[in-house]
Each structure stands twice: as C-alpha cells, then as structure tokens.
Amino acid sequence: MTKPEIRECLQDIKPYIPGKPVEEVERELGLTGIIKLASNENPLGASPRAIEAMQKNLKRMHSYPDGYSHYLREALSRKQGVQPEQLIFGNGSDEILSFLTLAYVNPGDEVVMATPSFSQYEFATRLAGGVPRQVELTGGDFQYDLDAILAAINEKTRLVFLCTPNNPTGTIIRKQELNRFMEKLPEKVLLVLDQAYLEYAVDPDHPTGIEHIEQSYPVISLRTFSKIYGLAGLRIGYGVAPVEIVADLNRVRQPFSVNAMAQAAARAALDDEEHVERSRRMVDESRRQLAVGFAELGLKPVPDQANFYFVDLKVDSKEAFQALLKRGVVVRTGDIFGFPTFIRVTHGTAEQNQRFLAALKEVLAELKR
User: Which one of 214, 245, 271 terminates a domain?
Assistant: First the structure.
C-alpha cells in the first residue's frame, strides 16, 4: 500500500500505550478483585449528584452538546470568581494543551518544560512542530529549578509548562517562588500552570494561578474534573486565563469537543462539596497510612501534595510491577519517567492501601533474595 509520508514533526512521537483494562488483566491472570493504583483516579468514584445528573440527561443524547458549555461556564465562573469569558473547556485538560501549542507554537519554536513531568507536554509540542526543551528537577528532592528554566528560555520560546503539584513526583512550586519567576519571565512567553491536582495540595503557600491572572500576567491555569471530582471517564477539563488568551484558544477548539454528559456531570459535581471534602480527607489519611507502611519497609516516598506517592523501591520497577500484578495490585512503573527503580502509586482507601503494602512486602522480599 502506498500512502502519504507522515509529517516530519511526528517522527519522534511515540504513541501513548495505555494499561490494559482491569477486567482484561483479571481474565488473563485468572484473578478477581484487582485494585488499580496506577492512574491517579478517585477510588471513591464520582459524586452521587454527578451520577444523578447524568441519568437525567440520558434522554437528551440525540442532541449535540452546548458548544459554549453555557451552564457549566456560569457555575464555574461564580465558583472561581472569574469572568465567564476567562474560561476554556476541553475534552480533558489534555486537549487544552494541544489548543495551546496549536495556537502559539510555529514549527521550530521552543517550549520549555521540566522532567520528569507530564508526558503530554512533549506530545503537544511535537504535534505542533515545536521543539521541547526539558529541564531536570533538582536531584533527590525533585524540586523545580526555576532559575534553570529561566535560563532555558530564549528568543524562540513561546510557552513554559509547569505542573504543580507535579506528576509524577507530587512536589509543588510555592507562591513566592512563582512570583519571582513571573517577574523575570520574558515578554510574549506564556506560562501554562497545569494544576490537575490542585485540590489535594495542603501547603498554604501553593499558588492557585488565578492571582497571577488577576495581575495581568500571561498565565493560564489548567484544571480537571478527572481527579478529585472522579469524572476521568467523561474527559472534561478547563482552563482559566485572561480573556485575550481564551479568545486565541477558541480559534483552534472543535465546536463540540466537550460532550453533554460531561457538562451535566461536571456542573453537578461542582456543587457537591461533601464529596470533594470526603475525597480530600481520604487522601490525607492515605498519606499517613502509606508513609508509615513505607517506613516499615525501609522506604521513603517523595513528600507529595497530590493523590499519589513517588517512591524508590531500590529494585527494578518493571519486575516489581509484574510481581505486584500477580498479587492483584496495579501501579505505575517509574522507568517511563526515567527512574527505573521508582513506582508511582495512587492513594487508595484504607483497605486498598493495606492490600498494596502487604503485597509490596512480599514482592520486595522476593526480589531482594
């Protein structure tokens, strides 16, 4: 078969390979009751109000969704204290990353980002024909080296991606650090603050991003309904930015990328503060439980402000993954982030954590023989 040549900028893109569905893994291994602690999902599930809202909207699925997300936009603008025109919605915040590179990155332009961090920054950059410039987090404690990031910016730089709390490390940038960074950020460079895990951060010095937008800095804060709101399967995220930036992003946005069910569920989830607080409290309790369990195993996780731990097992993470999988526990291996002895494990319920720690104890004893 003959076909057109694939675009040159796509040559270095490696397709994302998702993990198998739990049901398929159970079938292959002959197991039941596998617990998935690999994707930073909310183990408490979606808000009951969100589920009820989806059920009410089932009979409307023959109609196209509201391309402007009017009712969700109004509800979110009130909650965040911003103008409706300052909000942009996408099929997950991942899609908004692509909006940003499609709107602002020409072939050959550069985008600065940290590593290890969210892989979609590099993907979105390359998709637009841009060049990713990666700056390593500081050794050992996985903190942002904002001075090094500033030094990586040049006349070709269009965007800077900063994830806080950072995936996969759970570490954050504090307000004072971000303030100093913004003061030195060159003109015509847009800062993208990916804050998918913002609701889990307990450090009072963690920035919201909105305060910098109010000060007319070129900033967009990306948020998601996938994590604490438990709507990962519906794929809906949003960004808060100056009106002028949102107007640019709307030029590249597909008219119906956010489906009607997701809009209805997200709007209802916003009002369910009880579910959000319960989810936040579960993560707080999990941090303590896993920290104690890791300490008993002689392990020390990276202190996190998200809903997961990044921890060095001192053994090959792929071998540990397979051994844990046989015991009905799924985690994320660290080799995909460039740290082959680390794993990322999502905070779970007390019962899930107990199963994970018991399985990990067996696995470490097995692999260290």
Answer: 271
